[in-house]
From TrEMBL:
Transmembrane segments: 167-185, 247-270
Subcellular location(s) of the protein: Cell membrane
Keyword Transport found: yes
Function noted in UniProt: Structural component of the gap junctions.
Main localization of the protein described in the UniProt heading: membrane
Membrane topology summary: Multi-pass membrane protein
Protein name: Innexin
UniProt source species: Candidula unifasciata
Any Gene Ontology biological process: monoatomic ion transmembrane transport
Similarity-based family: Belongs to the pannexin family.
Amino acid sequence: IGSVFSALSAAVFDRGARDDDTVDRVNHMVMYGLLVFLGVASGTRQYVGSAIYCWSPAEFTEKIHRRYIHHYCLGQQNVQLALFLFLAVLFRVPQLLWKQLNKASDANMQLIVGMTTDTVFMDQNTRDEQLRRVAEYFHRWITTGTPSSRFLHCYYFTVLRAFCCNVYLYTSTLYFRFFIISAFLKTNFWKFGFHAMTSYIRSGQWEDEYNFPRVTHCDVKIRQLENVHTYTVQCVLAINLFLEKMFLLLWFCLMLMLFVNAISFVKWLFLLANESRSILFLWKFFGSFLSSRHTTFDDRRKCLVMLRRYLKADGLFVIQMVSVNTTDMLTIDLVRQIWLRYKTSCEEGSMMISRDGIKLNGHSVSNLNDSDDE
């Protein structure tokens, strides 16, 4: 399912550097576009085509009278097709919130992904220089822009919490959509698709006469002189033939996205909260440029320390997002530059300690050694 969604979103909605994953794009692009299309299609059928046909009484000889009855009875049937557009807007809200929370976390992931993707057609030297700049930006952000905390124990809106909040909103608002549609149709929309499949299996066809009646009766009150006469006219709702199929398609899409979003939310939490999985993910890229023959025990120890004290959950999440939106080769090159920048910072820290000395009871180690020599 993930590969299918990835191919679809890449082919139809490729907009350069991204700061989200495939499931996120399917939510705020594919589902948003589908609901806008359904809203426009149903609205076109209602206002351009003939959505309803009513059998007018014989005394209504004028064309304007028959048109009035058609419009009046169409409004009486509660065909509120703006529902599709409202549901489409709900798919945009989590993505807009994610953009704002991403800015609040000081993590410009779109810049990191964009600069990494731009190196795909560069030669190796130019690519290394560009990725070195990305690693330097990443180092400044990870050392100054994130709180000092262990896995998932954060006290601020970090980039990881912001994205998890985004995925959670997609999942929770899907439940909200089912209740909205149920209130609109005055039925249990959760069972809508199951009833359709059951009816089709039993009889070979499906028609929902309760929610989408083909024929209905409409009471029209007409004032003649001082009296009000009520005329009951029979109407054929041709638009319900289309709405029935549209809501069935919507049911299947919402159920699929409910399942996919729940899996995505659990996957991100499990991947980032499970340290062993995080180590395996990092070592997949480390193993590509650190051969076992040249890898020392100190390098392996630094890899674990890098994950726990340097990257933490936020840094690992950014690397995950880069790997989702770029190729493995570019991710390997970026991780290598981040690794080199981390080793440089460790060496700089060691040099600072050796130069300034470690203070013991108010005296530095270097000063104590000098006094011993004297």
